[in-house]
Design goal:
By secondary structure, this protein is α+β, with helices and mostly antiparallel strands. It is built from eleven helices and 31 strands. It is elongated, with a radius of gyration of 27 Å.
């Protein structure tokens, strides 16, 4: 084979290998071009959409669905009734809410009391394709579009949509006139095409939580009173005409002669678009090392202004830590916007009520685990909230060089859930938990423990490789739990499907105890007991009275492997513990009289719900 031919052959081989290594799951694509006219006196707006929808699936689509989120903010809606029903449950842990009831304290029964000028609504007046009107069926927060002509596989259609809406009083996530007096928090504000993936349509009614969307591009023109400053999750295309601090340095913005301004926003490769507006907004910016331009948009409150400045400074400082540990942020900007009801994430921006640093970092980390990876948050909320809780807490601890176990609060939250009697599997659909308490503790605490405990199983350094491999392999591709587990298995060389099945798909708990100690053939035999129903690999640290230590590692048989040593302490790797067996015994050559203590899981990364039996101290 000639040299040039050989080079071409091996080049093609490398390219094809790289392609094979990447996920090949198809996904839909969309492009929105929207024009919106907001009337600030009536809190209503009209809008048009031109939607290019690319059916990249192998399926023929005979109908489509759109989200009409704001129809939830009406008396007797599904969200209203569900909130009031959950509010009848008395929690065993009254710390969840001041009144000890299970409802979302932001919602309670407020929707039932809304007047006609306070409710929210989204009304689609028409949908046409190639000039042909489509049949529409409204199911409260879901619009069904019965297509006159099916959308064939690997084809594209263009829809024209005419709609109108009324901005609800601020109750949940979006709305007007929130507690800080922000006029408009415009989240879930437009008719949004429902995601269709390998599992079919995901036409989830808006009951309480969690979202899923089609990757695409947004061009959004917002016409509003010229005194209002607008901010959004995107890039402002006509900044030098608009001003308000968006203009380039040295540009003089000409005053508007009319009553309104049209803000032209663009966001590409995202699955949603949020904006906000207020006549008293102000903005500060920060650059980051190798990362995006950060904007902080807030209402002028003199006593709090310094807190917004400090939040911006810290967010800029923390970015290199985030990028190194979890992957680089791929967009040019990110904006923290005062608004909403506490903290709610969207692509390239978040709504936060106040200058809380912990909330700001948490919402920003959603960019990685929901806005860039884009898991189905309704089906797998722990993959978003849990991973976000883990990463934001870890990033802040790293920035602050915090000593001790920074994750203890998360483990305590999970342990309370496991003992509460309210726990349901973390695989439960986000809207179908029996309690808000079970949802939040499973999605946030148990989801975060999933990652830290994975570090116990695989080793922390391998777990960190897993996180980066997961991000780099699955960004912009909607991964599911199996996709994450396969990344973890490839990076660790271990079988880990059992971990997902036990931790996510069941409510079985971990409880190990130090059992009998005896001298056998001049060696000390130590028995470990599995009292809980979830098996795990086990680290056992023996500390001797002379100050020396031994680490004994017992792999789990269904892992088919062992993690590498994580410390300088001498380690013995024993035969695997079969998951069917409740007891396991091993020996040390030292005498019982030499032993000071025996401790299971000295790193305390295993979520053992009863740590009191994990350590035995032998009296002198």
């Amino acid at each position: 084979m000639p040299k040039l031919t050989r080079l071409l052959f091996f080049s093609l081989l490398l390219v094809s290998s790289a392609i094979v290594a990447q996920p090949d799951r198809w996904q839909q694509k969309i492009k929105y071009t929207m024009n919106v006219n907001m009337d600030v006196s009536s809190n209503r707006f009209t809008g048009t959409q031109k939607i290019d929808y690319f059916n990249q699936s192998p399926d023929t689509l005979n109908k489509m669905f759109m989200h009409l989120y704001w129809n939830a903010f009406q008396p007797n809606s599904s969200m209203d009734v569900r909130s009031r029903e959950l509010g009848k449950t008395k929690l065993s842990d009254p710390r969840r809410n001041n009144d000890g009831l299970d409802w979302d304290a932001r919602v309670k029964d407020r929707i039932s009391k809304l007047t006609p000028d306070e409710i929210g609504y989204q009304r689609v007046k028409s949908v046409t394709i190639n000039g042909v009107a489509q049949t529409l069926k409204e199911h409260e927060t879901i619009l069904e579009i019965v297509l006159t002509k099916p959308i064939l596989p690997k084809s594209k259609i263009t829809m024209d949509v005419v709609f109108e809406a009324q901005v609800p009083v601020q109750i949940r996530r979006s709305g007007r006139d929130n507690a800080e007096g922000i006029r408009y928090s415009m989240a879930q504000w437009y008719p949004k095409v429902v995601e269709y993936d390998y599992q079919g349509w995901h036409a989830n009614p808006y009951i309480a939580r969690e979202f899923y969307g089609v990757w695409g591009d947004f061009d959004v023109n917002i016409t509003i009173d010229k005194n209002y400053m607008v901010t959004a999750g995107g890039d402002l295309l006509n900044a030098n005409e608009i001003g308000f601090g968006y203009e380039a340095k040295g540009v003089t913005v000409k005053p508007s002669t009319g009553k309104t301004l049209t803000w032209k926003w663009q966001a590409n490769n995202v699955h949603d678009f949020m904006w906000a507006a207020d006549p008293e907004y102000k903005m500060i910016t920060r650059t980051t090392e190798g990362g995006p331009l950060l904007r902080v948009v807030y209402k002028k409150v003199d006593s709090l202004e310094n807190r917004w400045q400090k939040m911006a400074d810290t967010c800029a400082l923390i970015y290199p830590i985030i990028a190194k540990t979890f992957g680089a942020y791929p967009y040019k900007t990110y904006t923290f916007v005062q608004g909403g009801d506490g903290g709610m994430e969207y692509p390239m921006a978040t709504l936060i009520k106040s200058a809380s640093l912990g909330t700001a970092i948490h919402e920003w980390m959603h960019s990685w685990y929901q806005m860039i990876l884009g898991s189905n948050e309704a089906l797998y909320p722990w993959m978003d909230e849990g991973f976000t809780d883990y990463s934001s807490t870890r990033a802040l601890a790293t920035l602050r060089n915090s000593p001790g176990f920074w994750y203890n609060g998360t483990y305590m939250g999970y342990a309370r859930l496991a003992r509460s009697g309210f726990e349901e599997p973390a695989s439960t659909h986000a809207d179908h938990y029996n309690t808000n308490y079970a949802y939040s503790s499973a999605a946030y605490s148990k989801g975060a423990v999933f990652i830290e405990q994975l570090g116990y199983i695989t080793g922390a350094s391998v777990r960190d490789k897993i996180l980066l491999d997961y991000y780099n392999t699955w960004k912009f591709k909607h991964p599911n739990p199996n996709d994450f587990i396969r990344i973890a298995e490839k990076a660790s060389g271990l079988e880990l499907d059992w971990y997902k099945e036990y931790w996510i798909n069941s409510t079985k708990t971990i409880d190990y105890a130090v059992g009998d100690i005896a001298m056998v053939n001049n060696k000390t035999s130590i028995t470990i007991k599995r009292l809980g129903k979830m098996p795990m690999p086990i680290d056992v640290l023996i500390t001797f009275k002379d100050g020396s230590q031994e680490m004994h590692y017992i792999p789990l048989d269904i892992m088919y492997g062992a993690k590498a040593a994580e410390s300088a302490v001498s380690r013995t790797v024993h035969a695997s513990w079969r998951w069917t067996h409740p007891d396991y015994s091993f020996t040390t050559s030292r005498a019982v009289s030499d032993i000071k203590s025996i401790e299971i899981d000295p790193s305390q990364r295993m979520a053992d719900i009863n740590r009191t039996n994990n350590k035995l101290v032998i009296p002198d």
